[in-house]
Amino acid sequence: MKGEKAGENFVAITDPGSKFVTQATEEGYRRIFLNFAEVGGRFSALSYFGLVPAALYGIDIKTLLERAIGMMRATGAEGDVAQNPGLELGVALGVLAQQGRDKLTLVVPDNLTDLGLWLEQLIAESTGKEGKGILPLAGDPLNGPEVYGQDRVFVYVGYENQPDEENRRKVAALAAAGHPVITILMQDALDLGQEFFRWEVATAVASAVLEINPFDQPNVQAAKTATDQLMKVVVEQGALPQETAPVLQEGGLDYYASVSGGSAVEVLRNFFGQSQPGNFLCIQAYLQETPALNQELQELRRVVQERLHIATASGYGPRFLHSTGQYHKGGPDTGLFLQLTTDHAQDLPLPGRPYTFGTFQNAQAAGDLRALQDYNRRTLRVHLGSAGRSRAWLAY
Fold first, then answer.
1. What's the pLDDT tens digit per position in 44-83?
2. Least confident of 23-32, 232-241, 278-287, 310-319
3. Residue 167 near residue 140 (C-beta atoms within 8 A)
4. How many CB atoms lie within 10 A of CB 308?
5. Is the pLDDT of residue 395 over 60?
6. For residue 190, what is the DSSP state?
7. 137 vs 151, 161, 292, 309, CA distance in Å?
8. Half-sphere exposure of 119 toward its Cβ, with a 13 Å CA cutoff?
9. Are 312 and 305 in contact (CB under 8 A)?
10. 3 state DSSP class of 134
């Protein structure tokens, strides 16, 4: 046991002047990495925030950075003006979005699925504002051309020498049907360094095409403010304020929506009946992530895509609040938002606070829902009650 020297087992990565600098100094952390303050979080993959964990994980960051520098030169003054990788991608995405193809559907092999989580934040938080934006879709079920509208652009990212026959066959069919398809092939995983740089440049270029500022996030604060207001009530009164009554209670589930119905089937039918061409469904799951739940949500996305022919997105709360959450409030009013909440059977106190983790998560869900409603978004909240009921509503 190191006792007072336990800090030697930790390193800190933070911005200059943050409270974390003081804490890490007082507790004797082995190293404090001060990042460049002007680099926003979603553009920080090639800064200390991304590189230090990569190095500790054993990744060859020297080669990763060498390839990133090669992309930096290709997209900068040293590159070929006629073939600029970042400019080409950014202009394509921006112009396609102006033409209504604003759903960027990422297609990757199984061992690249996590790339979508990074791209979601980079693109959605950078472009989703002033009623404009590009919605990145990771994990949207890849299907035949007949289920897609005219709001899609498909980007396939894979490896040159790795078979990915099913995805490539489906992407080829989409291209043959007239959908725009962009293909990026890497040598190996260390090419991700250059792809991080390419996509960051492309996101800034696409934002310029859309005439928006890619480096601010004006609507992220809306959910934070609503949550803070609710937490003040918790501190003062010991609990969240009383909710309005659900429009329906059935099968142990509570339905909160602006639409009504005499049964769960009617409520769901009326909610999804608001869908129009070019819309998308966003599933916001304030639930514990598990492989089984991932499969259920993926099945829901598949059913909605095949029946309504609209794009689908899915995220776990409160994680998505700092990524696609900006697009949800600041982007175009084309989303249907399905929020899933549950009871917290195994709750824990939050250290130093007079409330629990579960109460704080409930406040974040309620705050985000309130923010969405303030922007007149179409919302449906389904409270699943106790654990084990998650499949019940899927049956509808």
1. 999 999 999 999 999 999 999 999 999 999 999 888 888 9
2. 232-241
3. no
4. 20
5. no
6. G
7. 12, 25, 21, 14
8. 26
9. yes
10. coil
The letter for the amino acid at 143 is: N
C-alpha span between 248 and 267 (Å, rounded): 8
Q: Vertex 376, ends 375 and 378: CA angle to 5°?
A: 125
**Which distant-in-sequence residues (6+ apart) come within 8 Å of 170 by Cβ?**
107, 142, 143, 144
DSSP state of 349: B
Q: Which pair of structure tokens corresponds to residue 188? A: 């190996």
Residue 380: its H or E element = strand 378-383
Mean pLDDT of the chain, nearest integer: 93
Provide the residue type at 38 as one letter: E
Exposed / middle / buried, residue 130 (Cβ in 10 Å: 0-12, 13-18, 19+) = middle
H helix or E strand, kind and range, residue 184? strand 181-186
Q: Which two tokens stand for residue 265?
A: 């089937």
Question: Hey, what are 288's tokens?
Answer: 């514990």
